[in-house]
Design goal:
With 418 residues, the chain is an alpha/beta fold. The protein has 12 helices and 19 strands. Bound molecules: pyridoxal-5'-phosphate. One of its GO terms (molecular function) is diaminopimelate decarboxylase activity.
Length: 418
């Protein structure tokens, strides 16, 4: 499938005239339509809720937009809890799926009355000591081994640091009941950025069977199953998007085959998607500022890995559109680079693109999740602005770009900078 930006060149030039590149741009229309499809896919389940994974895109305007579409949020740190609370998410609107959790994070989670998801058996006593056990609580499961579907191996949970073994789940539930917990949930995240309609249904079947077994063995009152994140998006033009309506139907089938016969038809399905909710509805907009011809041909842009880490970190592919040259032949082979003093600061390597001229606007696709949020300040690079393209075609600054004063703010006590 051809990848087309959700914004025109004219609109981008208009935005860039007001807010200089680089910036991350988000598409309100795409976000809302996708969230509605997601909710429709699971509307058969009475208690269904998507808890958007805040770490993917921690911007309050986008979080509130998802809130309007009925979503809750999934947090894993103190500041994500603060941000979510400030955005109007309260109590069970928030899942707290953390790991290696500091005591103050558990204390805030307990104080806010959110649903705490325990990553380990030892966290039962730890939480009890630092904050107390809430009446509703969740435990994270890790089945070990490799996670396979009919189409092959998806991921390797046995190597992942998350979650508890079956025996630990059982012991955690028993302990939690003794300490006053009354309502339980099960959570697992077994594979990341999956590209098939089978991931959620297969995972759901495992967790539904686990729910029945845990209820039978411990007598726990299991109220929800959280399928967590991991539904992927196609980053390449060849990739096919997941059909979320089919995914919802697949989960329904497992639900009807496993939970309904066990008398557990009131169990709610939760999800914690990040990438699927926002990934395709954001892009990084940058301008070509230099070209260089040595042993290879380089285009230097005004963004760098500090604005989008995935290519440098994972070798991840992000499609690039040179605005205004959509129909030009891709007859130039470029490395598209940022300015970090690190040779892995390349958004593309040996990419066939149209001839790029200085000043051209480049759109890096699918940066709406795990894009801006993975940014950092290496080499003293400053974080960019975030801008929302609204449904009516207007645009709004939803995070200003950092200034040197922001970068130096943590050194203020030295009184070096006036
Ligand atoms: C990162 C994360 C998610 C979201 O993952 P995506 O791949 O963006 O869907 C959900 N839940 C937990 C606990 C996570 O750590």
């Amino acid at each position: 499938m051809e990848k087309k930006p959700f914004v025109t060149k004219e609109k981008l030039e208009e935005i860039a005239a007001k807010y200089p590149t680089p910036f991350h741009l988000y598409d309100e229309k795409g976000i809302r339509e996708n969230a509605r499809r997601m909710n429709k896919a699971f509307s058969w389940n009475k208690g269904f809720r998507e808890y958007f994974a805040v770490k993917a895109t921690p911007n309050p305007v986008l979080m509130k937009l998802l809130k309007e579409e009925g979503c809750g949020v999934d947090c894993s740190s103190y500041t994500e809890l603060m941000l979510s609370d400030a955005c109007g998410f309260h109590g069970h609107d928030i899942m707290f799926s953390s790991n290696d959790t500091p005591p103050e994070d558990f204390r805030l989670a307990k104080q806010l009355g959110v649903i705490i998801n325990l990553d380990d058996l030892t966290h039962v006593d730890f939480l009890n000591e630092v904050a107390g056990i809430p009446e509703t609580i969740c435990c994270r499961y890790n089945p070990g081994g490799v996670f396979k579907t009919a189409n092959g191996i998806m991921d390797n949970p046995g190597d992942a640091k998350y979650g508890m073994t079956y025996d630990q789940m059982e012991e955690a539930y028993r302990k939690l009941m003794k300490l006053g917990a009354k309502r339980f949930g099960i959570h697992a995240f077994l594979a990341s950025n999956t590209q098939t309609d089978e991931y959620y249904p297969e995972l759901a079947r495992i967790l539904f069977q686990l729910a029945v077994r845990l209820r039978d063995e411990t007598g726990a009152d299991i109220r929800f199953v959280n399928l967590s994140g991991g539904v992927g998006i196609p980053y390449t033009p060849e990739g096919e998007p997941v059909d979320i309506l089919k995914v919802g139907e697949g989960v329904r089938k497992a639900f009807e085959e496993v939970l309904v016969p066990a008398g557990m038809e009131n169990v709610a399905i939760f999800t914690e998607l990040g990438r699927f909710m926002l990934g395709p509805y954001g892009c990084l907009v940058t301008r070509a500022v230099h070209e260089k011809h040595t042993y290879k041909d380089y285009i230097g842009v005004d963004a760098c890995a500090a604005n989008l880490m995935r290519p440098a970190m994972y070798g991840a592919y992000h499609h690039i559109t040179v605005m205004g040259k959509e129909n030009a032949p891709c007859d130039h082979k470029y490395d598209v680079t940022g300015g970090l003093c690190e040779n892995n600061d390349k958004f593309a390597i040996d990419r066939m693109l149209p001839k790029i001229d200085i000043g051209d606007l480049l759109v890096l696709h699918d940066t709406g999740a795990h894009g801006f949020s993975m940014g950092y300040n290496y080499n003293g690079k400053l974080r960019s602005a975030e801008i929302l393209l609204k449904e009516d075609g207007s645009f709004e600054l939803i995070r200003r770009a950092e200034t040197p004063a922001d970068y130096f703010a943590t050194l203020d006590f030295l009184h070096l900078f006036g």
